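Hey team,

Filing this mostly as a record. A colleague (T.K.) asked me to run one chain through the structure pipeline before their review meeting, and I want the input and output archived in the tracker in case anyone asks later how it was produced. No errors, nothing strange. Just documentation.

Input sequence:
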Amino acid sequence: ADKSEPNQYVLFSLPFKASEGEKLTLSLSVDSQYAVYLNGEFLDWGQWGDFPEYKTYDELDISRAAKDGDNRLDILCTWYGIDTFSYRVEPAGLIFSLYSDGKLIASSGSEVLCGADSRWKREGVSYVTGQIGWSFVYDSTLPPPEMSAAREIEKAATLVPRPIKKLMLTPEKKAVVLCRGPFIAGKANPRNMADELMSAYLGYECIIPRPVLPGKMICRGRDSGVYVTADLGEQSAGLLSLDFTVKSKTKVMITWGEHLDDCRVRSSVGGRCFAAEYMAHEGDNRFIWPIRRLGLRYMQVFFFSGEEEVEVRYLGIKETDYPLDMSGKFICSDNLHNRIAEVSKRTLLMCMHEHYEDSPWREQALYNMDSRNQMLFGYYAFGETDFVRGSLKLFALGVREDGLIDICAPSRFVRTIPSFNAIFPLQSAEYLRHSRDKAFLSEILPALKRVCATFEARIGENGLVRKFEDDSRYWDFFEWMTGLSGESRPDKEVYALPLNAFFSMAADGMAYICRELGDSDADKFAALHESINTAINRVFWDDAKKEYFTYLRDGRLEHKAELSQALAVCCGVAKGDRLESCLSILSRTVGGVESGLSPVPPDSEEMHPLTISHIVYKYEALMRRPEKYAKQVFADIARVFGYMLYRNATTFWETIDGGYAFGDAGSLCHGWSAVPV
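Output structure:
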């Protein structure tokens, strides 16, 4: 593929001979993504997100589709050609080796045939989101590509085995048809194919009992055709799977989403496009999109079939769960708390695929802050450490020239979040405590020290880390609350308690790591932790009001927040009477069920509450006095997370505003919200 042509699909094909009973193993690595077929049967998919200096390969057992005699291996590859929040653009390429009972029988080279697959439209295709990348437009009526000898290229890469297990591909997930009926398509928008579906006029046909798919359902529409809305029963993630029959060439539009708050799937929101297009050929159509997972509960499919009959056998996904030990249980006498624990585990599971994800629907991206929550919760839910190590490795590889990590890993974006970077040493120390994996910590220690050095270089005469300028390089985000979400202000000499508290915990974590590894910097980091804590106490505490402020700006203390009180406790700053004062503040304020961005002005005398993203720090703080506050923590969990359950949540939301947050783009499955685990 030419690097000037992003979103290109290329089919590679290799005929070979095999004997019955042989074990066929395929080792391969690709940039950007792959799907493997043997004799026309879809077998496997999924390049792990990586870096050129850490390029991973997969080993796949493809024996089950082999036959005695002639066989044909097909590898469909796509090259994104754009940076996303989980992919860094590198030159396109495929390398593979095919083994029979351990003996090499074929490999990538000029004897392999390839062709650009024009059935997949390359230009004019919408992004699902800027974080995820391309959707797709596929025309099954076009012929397969013309094949010619593949061209060998030079591509620098250090190949290593995939560091985590492959995802499991399940049979089609059961879907209940909620409604169907005729529709009139809205106005087409070439920049977002979902717009004509969000503005479509939908009819309604009463169907009792509701059909269950896989199954068989005959549909007949009018005007533009017929639509079908299917419910998978819970928030899920997997590969799109379709099975239906049409009388003639028919355009099919597929949309997916997490709710039906608009009386339809919210497929177009804020320029995002949760929709794809498939051009069906006359007769039976069976299709899997093997390139990108969908995060959804509901699927709405539009058949532009006019009055022609459509037979639907399946609309939905093949789930792609990461293999985990799900045997752990939380059981108590309160059924609400039992259900909260179950939903927390599912929330975590839906946000674990190739790495931790903030959400399976909107971004599928690995953030430091989000993943610290997910890692910590996962130790108790699943006893999992291999998956943690894979994500920490990506962070270590993503350290930039300025000593900070890209906003997500693996990605390549100018802007990053400094406070999230300070969490990297903390989550690494927690990994060491739970895994005892000293060899891996020794491997990433230089990256951890580089990140810490960036913060150390910003320590001023007052002993505090100076706030990063909120500009094109740095987003000074702490939490989704007024005054904490990175509002741009021209001030440069500003100090923030949350940034310093996070770095204090980072220094404490580094002291522990260095002690465990026998590294000479252990005492240095321990002293740094203490000195930062001393400075936080000296600068941010208001003795008259008995509370910590968030900012020091021009010698004046500003902004009051639960986050500041909670972090002061968690990093060890608040002790004695100050500890009791912070816990009292946290116990009497109501956190976690407020809107994501409070209308309270930043300079208000009111205490800005915590939202779900950081409520774990409030609970950690209050549990410093379990004899006094444990019951209150459990009651707050029941109130906050029970609120979602009573609104039919099957996973926990990004914020308490649900799908209406962030301009109607709120996620209903967010990894940071599995706090109750």
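Quick notes for T.K.: The first helix runs from residue 195 to 198. The longest strand covers residues 225-246.
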